[in-house]
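Sat 14:20. Reprocessing the chain from the morning session after the first attempt stalled halfway. Input below, unchanged.
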Amino acid sequence: MSDIQVYGIPGSPFLRSVEITLKEKGLDYQLQAMSPADMKTAEHLQMHPFGRIPMFEQDGFRLYETQAIIRYIDDVFPTPPLTPGNPKARARMNQVIGVIEWYYFPKAAAPIGFNRIIGPRLLGLPGDESAVAEAMPMARTCFAEFDRLLGDKPYIAGDSFSLADIMLGAQLDLLCEAPEGRELIQATGGLKDWLKRIVARPSFAATEPPAMLREAA
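Finished this time. Tokens:
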């Protein structure tokens, strides 16, 4: 039995980032699948006072926030390394993760994903077209910037696969199931080919979002 427990909602790109990291390291773990309602229970709030996911636990050590979890996994299980040794490549990795967490997800992916996938198909809520339209300029900026930062490199931070590829791949793969995501990725240069290569990795194939989410998109 694995001593690593991961808590989260299947289909979440943040949970998927943790699972991909674990699979890239060849580590066994147990997934404690949750529903959105579970995030507000007293039990979960004791572990995560902000009522979010994912959560990670190993030998009684608990950790939340995706970036902290995947960095911890890479530190404790250093083979294969997922953080570049070169300072410039490492800074680029950190920059991309920052763009995902500060701009891409909250201002682009979250409103588009909720109104195209989560709300209409899973919760029975009508999509808010104005919210989608409002999110599109930031989405275009983010896709263009990810494309620019990738350039002609094989990976987003340089020559080696890194935590930034994991987080960005998990994020783009789900949004690109929605019409707006497909439009945005097709307008890029190397980014669309990068995404095809990234999601073909065994760690991505083993952690695909549930079929119901892809069908909803």
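DSSP finds ten helices and four strands in the chain.
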